[in-house]
Amino acid sequence: MFKVLTICLAIYYLPYVSCMTEEMLELAKQLHDTCVGETGAKEDAIT
Length: 47
Description:
By secondary structure, the chain is mainly α. The chain has a domain at 20-47. It has 3 helices and no strands. The mean pLDDT is 80.
């Protein structure tokens, strides 16, 4: 019973947990660009 409830709650809340705001996406992009700039890593080596 508890296992089924846990799975149902996880499915219900997953979209709310996995979404990122535009501000968070911009900050992540800034961090990525800064790290790439400082290390000199090539984009194709990362992706």
